[in-house]
Predict the structure.
Amino acid sequence: MPDLAVVPGAPAGFLFPQRSDSAMERWMEQPVSEPTLARQELVRLLRDVAGGDRTALRSIYDRTSAKLYGICLRLTGSEEDAADALQDVYLTVWNKAGRYEEGRASPITWLALIARSRAIDLLRRRKATPDPIEAALDIPDEHPDALTLVSAGQDRARLQHCLGTLDDRGQQMIRAAFLDGQSYPQLAAREGVPLPTMKSWIRRALQRLKGCLES
Amino acid sequence: MTTDEPPILPDDDWRAAEYALGLLDGAEAEDAAVRAAQDPLFAAEVQRWRLRLAPLLEEIAEAAVPPALWPRIAASLGGAAPAASAAARASNDNHSGDRRLAFYRRWSIGATAVAAALGLFLLLDPRAQPIAPMPVTPAEPAAEAPMVAAMAAKGSDARLVATWEPGARSLTVAAAGDMPNDGKHSHELWFIVTGAKPRSLGVMPLTGRMHAQLAAEIAAALKQGTVLAVSVEPVGGSPTGQPTGPVVASGALLPT
């Protein structure tokens, strides 16, 4: 507790911090217990799964399946496919939990990306035509509250900022690809443009996005 | 629009981004998958792009999982090696010294999957109020069932437990151990509905124990997933109506 000072006479074990910066700032800098503990718990459970502990996998399932199923459902657009994809997700977790590296991504990000990949794999296998682009046009919260920032850190704010520097079309295409699993040919057909045009639109948007995120 | 566009990336560099976004299909997607499996640099670039865009996934709301799914998954795992399970148990034992986690687990174990997921994901996405009926477990807690919030925070020794009985609109808070009293500060209790500003539930008595019967309007906001938090404020409470001092403990309401 580097920034907590002992108050003379204060009972041991529970000390008044001397700084009184904005509570919200501190909240953002120092995650509150819930996300931190939930994250630590998931990291620990992933380690246990890597050691072959089925109960730990069930615990991860209990904590994350509703979210990961939501991702599978959004991408596949079908409950049956989403269920199949979700089964693949937890099989992947069972087999690859040992490959999770805490320093590279939060456990829930890692899991969410697995869900997205499995759902896209399934989409491509099915060759299904997903729902129209409307779903991709959900405008994200412009002003995420402090608790959102706690969990997502700067990443989300930065991504939103940088997406905001793209033109509308570039944003929509990137979101349609990432959130709805739309491929180049699907996007080109939907927008009624030749494939090379779509590739050029998206590459330009990605290039600008990368430049912004890395600046 | 900037005038100085970055130089166009070599064609090869696009492959990782395009594969990461899921833009490729057919043979192109398969080629990229093979390459990702064989070429660590390519795989790393793919993962970098996925991580860049991963925050978008927070926008996707939870959905009710078909209850029959877990048995299907469990059946597909195959037999776990007993040795591995023993290792995992030993690993669990190693963690038993982590009192903070143990404290948390006491309250979260036995909570439904919904509760655990809510604690985690409502914080991730303020818009993800589950629209669907509560997912995963059939044993959905009744609206009137009591709930508990275990409050703690990184860098703080404060531990408090709040018990909320919606039927009686009764909120009881108890600190584990002594609450400090330096005569210059108070502890104030707040509740935070995801997506909204914190609202005060009042200044806590010096004993660290508190009982209140809440107004119906406030009671309606104290639901599963609502976060309770304790901040350090000037004596008498925050002068601004919002937390001004550090948050020394917080936790979400979960079913018991």
Observations:
- Chain A has two domains: 28-128, 131-215.
- Confidence is low (pLDDT under 50) at residues 1-32, 128-153 of chain A.
